[in-house]
Amino acid sequence: MSAVDIESSGPQDLKDLENLKLGEKIETTGTSESSAAADVRNKPKPNSRRLPFDGPAISSTVPERPQLSEEEEAKYEETLAYVKSVRELPTSFVKKNKETAPLSELEKYFLSRECILRYLRATKWNVPEAKKRLEGSIVWRREYGTDTMTAEMIEPEVPHSYLIVVFDKY
Description:
By secondary structure, this protein is mainly alpha-helical. It has 2 domains: 3-53, no CATH class; 70-151, no CATH class. It has helices at 3-8, 14-19, 35-42, 70-85, 105-110, 113-122, 127-144, 151-154, and strands at residues 88-90, 100-102. The relative contact order is 0.10.
């Protein structure tokens, strides 16, 4: 996509995003796009989505679990056994703070099979590094209170934010 396409494919300035209301669609006005791209963009979509999402699209399917090699499965099992053995973690990264707390139900839910596999893949299947990063993520989530945030706390930042939807490869 060229710089011209990027500029013409979205709101022309930040004010457009700030004034966008929940559920509204962004209208684009670009003269540099090809006629094929304009035809695709202007074609009515049968199941156009509005924000916030009510649920997955009708066409969505649950992907099959990735097949792991024996070595990868062994590393996953080792990491899973470690995660199950963790009883308490620090409440912040501050070295002087020796306070620890047991894992909450939400933190245990965070440590799903998919999450553990993401961390293992991110560390190229280096188990000690994956364990360290998993622990660090939970401590970071505790320190910044991500599990206790409410819509009211986040609302003031919404006009200055962008919605980024990311789909994991696995």
